[in-house]
Amino acid sequence: MNKPRETARLLVRNGYLITMDDDETIFEHGAIAIGDDGRILAVGDDADIAARYQAGQTIDAHGAPIHPGFVECHLHASYHLFRGVLPDQLVESDSFDTFEGHFYNTVTDEDEYLSVLLACLEMIRNGTTCFMEAGTVLTPEMAARAASEVGIRAVIGDAFIWDQPQGFAQGKTDGAGCATCAAQARLHTELKRAPKTREEALATLGAQLKRNADPDALVTGHVAVLGLGTASEELMMEAKDCADAASVTLNIHQSYSPADTEADRKRFGRDPLLHLDAIGFLDRNVTFAHANHLTDAECEVLLERGASLAWAPAASMMWGHGSSMHGRHGELWRRGGNVALGSDSPNWSNDFDLWRQSNLAVLAARDTHMDRTYLVAEDGIAMATRAGARAVGLEKQIGSLEAGKRADIVIHTLDRPEMVPSTNMIRNLFYASRSKSVHTVIVNGRVILEEGRFVGIDERAIYAEVRKASRSLLNRMGHRVEANAVPRAARRP
Ligand SMILES: [Zn+2]
């Protein structure tokens, strides 16, 4: 007599299962059983799982790839209402007063909510099931609300943890005679709703950690510090203590452009990461966003301490900061460093598509080292999954498809031209299709996107609201959207 089958809430069957477990096991005809609590009960060969479990709902992947949801490790979620507004010929030092000064003093809670809502829909559609926000949503509650409504996992921080906002401008240019420095310093200190002093920053630091009291919470808290010269050493260490006490990640922008890297080198009197190590800041629970400009000595100490990087290759390429030429990310990855990925913001990468970042990361590293074999597709997928989970402090819960982990799962479709023919599933997925074939997305065992359609979310109604809110925000900011910002004559002087 057959053994009675165990009960699962959901079965995902008949897929090319890329588990990203420690051995990077692949089940070519695989299945996943998911329990009532949103955790994975078992993964394995389809025939074995089907024989062992019965479920109320079954999703047939029709042979398509299935992988752990991608983990976005550096993202500003509240700028989506002015995506694409900054012209290609704008220099970066002029860009910050547009959004820092005017945007942050104009944006409302409702604008931030809609922006994060849009960002979440975009991430789900692109196969991202978890994001860590960089601590720049003025009302973090709006980020939490939007993420919860969409059903995406989110790790959010307090807004603008800084105590020397004028430090930002100093790191944006080479200094002497800079016409915009003074203006920028003023704008940053005039962000009405951001802290001005260490006391004000400390008053909000750690407020989002309250979310971690519920072990099943989809939206949790971490400690975000803006960085780039805006935090004193005292504040940085207070933030580190706060993150340590709560066992969460501390994330901070670091060594983004040559200018802010130099400014940090000047204020610390040596390579920034060497100084941060000397004062006890550099640690396994620290995630540095960007880190495009590191010295040999900084790479060594980074590897030794086990800190993570959130590499945003498109953001560097968009603004010409040289991560593909000077970045050490690929090399650090090969040496065992934890290099995760980020999309930054809607005027830096412009899309929240970690598949794009993953692909760019692998190709950029090959180009830098002039070596096709330097990184392979599997490295890119590992950066977006396992490394990401560690960089946001959730490696025990997500980042791979294994029994006991949360069921954050992306199922692709083979019914796209880029997925035909199926000669090598991973290479077809990574080089040809990427996010285009994302078909069904599950977060914490719940189906959010089913065969290309959001479940219980009126996507078009949200887009209409976002368009309206964006027009209103840009009007209030006095921003004129130009039909053609860069005429041909200006492009070819
Ligand atoms: Zn950033």
Q: Largest sheet at a glance?
A: 9 strands, mixed
Secondary structural class:
alpha/beta
Supply the CATH architecture of the largest domain: Alpha-Beta Barrel
Domain count: the total is 2
Q: Into which percent range does the helicity of residues fall?
A: 25-40%
Total helices: the number is 19
Q: Give a count of the beta strands, DSSP E runs of length 2 or more.
A: 18
CATH superfamily of the largest domain: Metal-dependent hydrolases
Please report the distance between the alpha carbons of the first and last residues.
Answer: 82 Å
What gross morphology would you assign?
globular
Rg value: 22 Å
Poorly predicted parts: none
Strand content: 15-25%
Q: Provide mean pLDDT, rounded.
A: 93
Q: Which cofactors or ions or other ligands sit in this model?
A: zinc ion
CATH class division of the largest domain: Alpha Beta
Your description of this structure?
With about 500 residues, this protein is α/β, with parallel strands linked by helices. The chain folds into two domains: about 5-70 and about 400-455, Urease, subunit C, domain 1; about 70-390, Metal-dependent hydrolases (TIM Barrel). Helix content is about 40%, strand content about 20%. Strands 1, 2, 3, 4, 5, 15, 16, 17 and 18 form a nine-stranded mixed β-sheet that branches. A five-stranded parallel β-sheet has the order 10-11-12-13-14. Helix 3 crosses helix 18. The structure holds zinc ion.
